Amino acid sequence: MKPPYRLYGAELSPYSIKVRAYLRWKGIEHEWIPRSAARQAEFARYAKLPLIPLLVDADEQAMQDSTPIIAALEAAHADPRLTPEDGALAFVAALIEDYADEWLNKAMFHYRWAYEADQASAARRIAALMVGEGGAQLEASIRERMIGRLHFVGSTPETGPRIEASYLGLLDILEALLADRPYCLGGRPTLADFGLYGQLAELLSDPTPGALMRERAPRVAAWVEAMDRPAGRGPLETWAGLAPALAPLLGEIGRVYQPWMAANAAAVSAGADIMNAEIEGAPFTQAPQKYAARAWGEIGRQRALIVDPRLEDALAAAGIQLS
User: Fold this and answer.
1) Domain tally for the chain?
2) Which of 49, 76, 103 is the last residue before a domain boundary?
3) Which long-range contacts (CB under 8 A, 24 or more apart) does 126-132 make?
4) What's the whole-model pTM score?
């Protein structure tokens, strides 16, 4: 008998392990199916796009894209509750998830394919997942192809230092945030935790950023390892208690993600081939990302639904504008 859900994914996919961690935390029965050449025909029967994660339910209905997958599962499996009851905190959780999915992903991809040791490690692991051990030619092909895709996430010799500085700054922020609580918003994980976990788990698994995390932010490294099978089901903290602790993270989002997202959305809207952002006084140029622009639009839509001076003040202080 098939389980209620089948999740097709890969250990080296941040969005796949994000959904898997959520399913484990909720206690939702599922089968984890690593995507491989041997399962490609099966995967292709359900996938509209060649992307993971892919979730298939007992009625053979399929979904792709980690955020909508989690939203659909949450609607069907309410307990334990993922979304904070406080609307301001619920929005902040969604904003942090979006930041992780679209900005922190740059650090994940940059470190994995810009450094030689990380290239070799990732190519070897990907080849092993696809065909098993001994695929030296496949490793070389994967390595060449993925290095050639660095510019798609905005990683270049010019932008690399900005991406790395943001990663290190985030580690410092999270090391402090997690000093007084098991999860970002208190006693149980929210979208913020699952979004950050997906990217940070991959960064921890790679030689260069993993060593940086273990040395600079050991508390974060331990949290990432625990998030593979999160257990917390306790209460979340109040806005009053969390607001000061969250201010540095919101400030980081305002400094780096806000200007990138605004420039990206404008470039997509104008049909431009190149987007130009200024992040902390330095230029950041890359091809526009349509999916990220849609995600930013959805965050703006969610923000418009909340009338709360507490949230308005916190976002304004962080320099986050969503109009």
Assistant:
1) 2
2) 76
3) 126/10, 126/12, 129/10, 129/11, 129/12, 129/34, 129/35, 129/36, 130/36, 130/37, 131/36, 131/37
4) 0.96
